Amino acid sequence: MAEADLLSTPHNIQISEVSCDSFRITWETAPDDTSRLTHYFIDLSRKEGSEPNRFKHRDVPTKLVAKAGPLPMSVRGHWFLSPRTEYCVAVQTAIRQPDGDYQVSEWSQVVEFCTGDYAMDHLQQLLDKAQAAAGRPLRFSVFYRNQSPEYFQYVRSECGGAMLPSFKDNSGSHGSPINGKLRGVFLSCNTEFDTGLPPKDSPYGPLRFQISAERLLNPSTNLYFADFYCMYTAYHYVVLVLAPAGSEGDDFCKTRLPRLDLTANPFLTYAAGDVPVFCHASDVILEVLFTEPLLLENGILAQISGRPQLMSLSTANAKKDPSCKVCNISVGR
Q1: Quick check: 113 and 86 in contact, CB under 8 A?
Q2: In what order do the strands lie in the sheet with 285-290?
Q3: 109 and 89 Cβ atoms separated by less than 8 Å
């Protein structure tokens, strides 16, 4: 095999048009090499916890072998890329010899990049799956938030009696655009089949804040779909965002999340009338992120059974089951 230094080393590697499952890559080589090249070898690995995954022998093709062509080169579907994940990439150029061997360049320097969030079309795929799992509508009358006495004491003493929005954690789908980027106050609205009331128990604490559904779910608020996931259990969760029209949260969601019709969607609905009717989906657990502060004085606090043994039901930073066929789409977790 010819010496590797007969080909110039690829340099000035540039990554562009990065999405949650694709990217474009370009580089520079010596002008004399360009017309001679027959193949590109591209080595890609996750950045976390290890060095780039290089092959030990120079004459073994790397993870992606592509015929030489115009740059930039689109990379899509060659790897099962995950959203919001840091990767390392390096490039080697080659000339295929008549005997099938390769004359190769040195490896380029390693370049790092991070894939993006789910785009709107990916979220629509997730929404379609969630709609199929939603079940029939059940009536409800209040949104509620279960927490510890210490939490509510802190709200009174340090926050002026207002539950303040905080950044959404990283639970659920890794590619959800709201993770770590959108602030809100998480609320529940699911009820028990036999009573039509919120559950008596909670893994989050023995105090429950309740607020009339009409205060939050009305024509002046917009509703968005944000996620659909499970945690290695039969239960599935749907994350929705309630944002007052024109608010900062609403502006964030407009270009990133599918908007739902308040009066006609399978998850959470409002029907106007002398006595408004509110319904939630029966077969999924709804997590509703309200993007504005909530004053305790606008609702009531009640004692419930906060049982530590239910902490397995907590979704705080919970990881999505990547093997579930019900709630995963083909572009990553």
Answers
A1: yes
A2: 166-167, 183-187, 285-290, 236-244, 221-230, 259-260
A3: no
Tens of pLDDT, residues 22-68:
999 999 999 989 889 999 999 988 886 544 444 333 443 347 888 99
How does pLDDT run across 172-216, given as a tens digit for each residue? 998 999 999 999 999 999 999 888 889 888 888 899 999 999 999
Q: Supply angle C-alpha 15, 116, 87, rounded to 5.
A: 55
Spatial separation of the C-alpha atoms in residues 94 and 1, rounded to whole Å: 11
Query: How far apart are the C-alpha atoms of 249 and 97, rounded to whole Å?
Result: 58
Q: Are 16 and 23 in contact (CB under 8 A)?
A: yes
Q: Up-side HSE of residue 121: CA atoms within 13 Å toward CB?
A: 5
Cα gap 233→292, rounded to integer Å? 31
Q: What CA–CA distance (Å, rounded) separates 41 from 52?
A: 14
The amino acid sitting at 318 is: A
Residue with tokens 């954690």: 169
Residue 157 main-chain phi, psi, to 5 deg: -85, -30
Q: Dig out the tokens for 4 from the structure.
A: 């590797």
How far is CA 266 from its chain centroid?
Answer: 21
The amino acid sitting at 260 is L
The closest of 264, 283, 282, 287 to 137, measured between CA atoms, is: 282
How is residue 247 written in tokens?
A: 């608010």
Predicted TM-score of the model (pTM): 0.85
Q: Which residues of 60-79 are buried (b: 16+ CB within 10 A; e: fewer)?
A: eebebeeebeeeebebeeee
Match 């000035």 to its residue by tokens.
12
